[in-house]
Amino acid sequence: MLQQKLTEIARRHDVPGMAAGVLSGDRIVHAAHGVTNLDNPQPVDEHTLFHLASVTKTFTATALVRLAAAGRLDLAAPVRDFVPELRLADPASTAEITVHQLLNHTAGLEWNLIDGEQATLEGFAGELARLPIIGRPGERASYSQAGYNLAGLVIERVTGLPYEKVVADLALRPAGLERTVFGLDEVVRHRFAVGHNPDGDGRLRPATPWSSWPAGARGNHPGGGIASSVSDLLRWARHHLDSADLHAMTEPTVPLRASSLGDAFGIAWFLRDVGGVRAVGHGGSGNGQFAELLIVPSRDFAVVSLANAGPAGYPANQEVIGWALADWLGVREQEIQPLAYDDERAREIAGRYELDAMDLEIATDGAGLTLAVGIKPAMRAASEADMPPDYAAAALGLLPDDEYVITEGGLAGQRGYLTRDADGTVIGADLAGRLFRRVR
Question: Which residues belong to any copy of the Beta-lactamase-related domain (predicted)?
């Protein structure tokens, strides 16, 4: 059934290549569809490497948790104990941020440096004074790639070894992962998927660069540099299910509000209830590639879906995950019904919101609301590489308590909420765990 469903979903979403897998107790099922690259097609199978992007964070966190268990560091310690030269936009935050706050996205760092192409983690950390601070450490959760790249430098300072070697020693090898690697030099030794994005005519074209950052940009490895396969990701899930020393990573550390990604952060993992069962997972989006891993510990269950087209790969993966949960476990996400359109509320929130790399536009035509999100035009114009397409304006429905849900398009089902200041003025919009600040 998995093979039939995967083929149906991939064709309907026009994704050139997908791979999926289910782990249920001792049973493992794989499925694959299509090709790695429309210009140089090779069949996708369960061993084909895809860029995992942010799923990498689960590997970085695992290495730090194991270093802490070995007495090499205290996760509650300030980051400056290990990176004394650290300078951030806010001096107080520089002194206060802890390693644990990097791992559960409460450090107050915005998403990432726009030009995060540094060849070393030291180089990346040296630029962090340019990154806006969105709140005091521990004040709120906001997803940060930059925080995880800084955590990678902590790993190097604690061990005196390259980040990638420590992750291999403490995470990849203990889990028996044979096809999980960093960087194109390692990726090209295996069969690998190439991302695809639509051109101006809507035709899918292979994406360049292969990952979201140029080759050699090690400064982004800890937050998003790993490539892996369905077969290895199911082993990774089994390793976390079986390793008692890692179970604390799935305990809630900070709540998430109105997010389709989860209702809390553990250590790296997003935690959420699906049909009354607790699930832990992480997704990743690269340049025309999307990855999803979801684990249900109480059912000894995991599902993986990988796709090589943007933006269609995201909803395709979500559909695979939802089908597997329903078919194998009999659990389903609860459908959310937006409120009737309210013109006064709509005009109050309409406007532009931004973070360092992206703009978010909420608009109303007097009958409905839409949300569009994409890369900043100046950043896109300055880049010599192809960049992922923007998400076109899609219908947005309001919910109680300043929450909302996107009801169509590539982000259908994504939830978020609005932030107000002390006077009640809307000053921010959260989407996908990230805070977009309102532009006046």
Answer: 3-311
The residue out of 334, 367, 384 marking a domain boundary is 334
Buried b (16+ CB within 10 A) or exposed e, 373-403: bbbeeebeeeeeebbbbbbebbebbbbeebb
Q: How many domains does the chain have?
A: 2
CA distances from 188 to 18, 179, 180, 226, 278 (A): 19, 11, 12, 13, 37
Q: Using one digit for the tens of pLDDT, what is the confidence trace for 246-290?
A: 999 999 999 999 888 889 999 999 999 998 999 999 999 999 999
CATH number for 348: 2.40.128.50
Bridge partners for 272 per DSSP: 279
The last residue of one of the domains, among 317, 334, 351, is 334
Phi, psi of 178 (to 5 degrees): -100, -15
Q: How far apart are CA 278 and CA 239, in angstroms?
A: 18
**88 with 256: CB under 8 angstroms?**
no
Q: What is the pTM of this model?
A: 0.93
**Which CA distances in Å does 211 have to 51, 117, 180, 207, 285?**
7, 12, 15, 9, 10
Q: What residue numbers bound the domain in which 315 lies?
A: 1-334
What does 239-308 look like in DSSP terms, one character per residue?
A: HHHH-GGGGGGGS--EE--S-TT-SEE-SS-EEEEETTEEEEEEEEE-SS-EEEEEEEGGGTEEEEEEE-
